[in-house]
């Protein structure tokens, strides 16, 4: 096997496929990246058996073949090489010589036959969504997935597609994030995608690339196609919580507040809140003012904000982290906070769009 390719393109492709390579695996072959010639292209593949990432780049193929090389060392070598042509020569014993200008490395590879094949997902019926929108939907939902593996289904994001509309929902038992968007679809679909997969796709999607992301589903897997990159992931099995039952239909108090002002106040209040046991901040809502307080052994913080209140006064407590998480991802200048009672969930939504809803459970305040 012998080929020549650009150092810059190769380094970029390695960085992307490495996102699927696990350093903790007990299978040595999975610590490597598969390099395989396909026509006049070079294909790179990384997988941890849960997620697989494949990218093809332009190359001058002098002789065909395939090899698996340690992901860590290959990445470090290629990134340190000058921006020039890189030549790979692999012999029958899997010895790999990498040559670039005045540098030459020899690595011992592994036979590609031992590398697991990625699941086959037929690319027949594609759902198409703009990269910008998809990246934003991931950013506004995946952070609310559960990190605890005791309920695996909650470590994923529910994706519902129907009539050119897409909903993405994540929840972890303390908060829920719901985002709606538009998608080109030919039929309805519903699946739970691991949060880890979506976070990797969020990192992969390029701001320069304007092409749509294509999605293909089977019963057990989903394929995301972005130009010359494919991401294949298993789907999570199980029944996702009926989120529509959780979202309140009405409120007794509604606060309108500037997002940036609330974020700044919450960040200051959380400096003391995180010194306490449960990250507690207290909102006291009365007339046109919201007071945010937090008490810890080392001190107290007191913040006041101008608001517009519709409905009843209220005192309610929250985990400051869960509130900060949502304030950081809302792009709108103003938000609504909707309350029913001081022990019922609070709903956070932008004032200028109906496509995003965030629910957060309160913390009971001591009398």
The assigned structural class equals alpha+beta
Question: How much of the residues is beta strand, in percent?
Answer: 35-45%
Shape annotation: elongated
Q: Mean pLDDT across all residues, rounded?
A: 94
Q: Tell me the number of helical segments per DSSP (H or I, 4 or more residues long).
A: 7
Termini separation (Å)? 74 Å
CATH topology of the largest domain: DNA Polymerase III, Chain A, domain 2
Task: Tally the beta strands.
Answer: 26
Give the fraction of residues assigned to helices: 10-25%
Layout of helices and strands, plus pairs?
Layout: E1 2-6, H1 7-17, E2 32-38, E3 41-47, E4 51-58, E5 60-63, E6 66-70, H2 71-80, E7 85-90, E8 95-100, E9 103-108, E10 127-129, H3 131-139, E11 156-162, E12 165-171, E13 175-182, E14 189-194, H4 195-204, E15 213-217, E16 221-226, E17 229-234, H5 243-246, E18 253-258, H6 259-273, E19 280-286, E20 289-296, E21 299-306, E22 308-311, E23 314-319, H7 320-327, E24 334-339, E25 346-350, E26 356-360
Antiparallel strand pairs: 1-5, 1-7, 2-3, 2-6, 3-4, 4-17, 7-8, 8-9, 10-15, 11-12, 11-14, 12-13, 13-26, 15-16, 16-17, 18-22, 18-24, 19-20, 19-23, 20-21, 24-25, 25-26
Helix pairs in contact: 1-2, 3-4, 6-7
